[in-house]
Predict the 3D structure of the following.
Amino acid sequence: MSHNVGVVSALRPFLAEQPPLPRIAMWPAYRWLVVGTVCVGAFLGQLDASIAGLVLPTLQQVFAAPIDSVEWVSIAYLLTLAALVVPLGRLADLLGRKMLYSWGFVVFIAGSALCGVAPTLAWLITFRVVQAVGAAMLQANSVAIITAAVPRRALGRAIGVQGAAQAVGLSIGPSVGGLLIDTLGWQWVFFIAVPVGIAGTALARVVLPCTTREAAAEVASEPERFDWLGAALLGPAVSALLLAMTLGNTWGWTSPMLILTVGVAVACMATFWVAERRSASPLIDPGLLRVRAFSLGLFAGLLSYAVLFGALFLMPFFLERILGQSAAQTGLLLTPIPIALGVLAPVAGTLADRIGPAPPTVAGMASAAVALAALALMPDLTLPATVGLLALLGVGLGLFTPPNNAAVMGSAPANRLGVAGGILNMARSLGTSLGVAATGAVLTIRLATRLGAQAARTLDAPPVTLLPAFHETLLFLAALAIVAGLLSTLRAQSE
């Protein structure tokens, strides 16, 4: 057996899984307890993500640091998460998903507590990396655990319930974060994760089923190894690409720094694929990506996240600069998106289980496209109409996301569920950054056609100039939604 197999085998005693409590495992609705346990991690991850962005202005004052330094509190977290989610998913396939998921809570709790006591900005950024390692362990395994525990006929509903938990965390994060900052201090933005994480750890230990036996049987029949070279190449490739998309508007899309970063991403990714084709146990099995239902659903999901976070990036420009809303009012007016998404997610998942994923995914992206196009084309748009269209956007995304994720995971083989879940979450990270970067770039380009050299000062653009550029950018997002819907149609034809 190779050295890599020996390393994996040596780690297994530290990740030994304990079976769930017998009384819990024998309960008729046991599989839904598993889903509920995974929802704790899903809620915690989105709660932290939505709060972390809110605390950046406070951190700038506390540490007397420039905003481009404080931004690394979020950037370091995102880069680490995106780089590790696929390797950790594959490691879970080999070692067992339950214990890696449980340890994810422990690492996340430790990182959160350390963030709360960080004495300097540099230490805070370092501890955010630790926190991101735990988040990657959770995200890489969550949807895989659900897929393995729930029968295929109920998978859409189960993933819809998880989506609802994520939406709840995303929607209440800003209000909870603002209350914590104002009453207890910025440290509690991170401390709040500790009790939730402890509850998640306890539930994971007594509820989740063992997966070590499945992984061990796979290793015994076919001695697979962890692809350390693939992990060493994929991480920098994804991180560099994510960094380029995140900071492209700041650096400039023709800047030497951006060109260098993209060059590193391309070189690492090209080398990664060459190495994967030659590896006996690749990190990402090329055969998995040749499954059309998997790859098309994955790309459609990436575009859907680009639509969602592109809209969340763009709408404050309209609400604040055009309609004259305050920042607090704008945050409240945007909540219909996650609320509608959370309400529709379980419904859409159940619907997909009954009639298949194609109708709700196509209808969802069509609804999102209609909402975005109406925001762009309706004359004299009122505030109530705007809120209604934002709710329709959330409805569309709620209809799309659980059925699409269920179709992607349902097309992956059982011994690749961890890495499939990791790829799905990596696509979400890339789609999120792509949406913000592309939306910012389109808005800047459309303003440049009207302001010329003054386009660099987009915040100073008068409303009469900003409004048509805003409309054109919304139409760009609507076009992305249409493409995602077309990909869903092609995916359905390949099933």
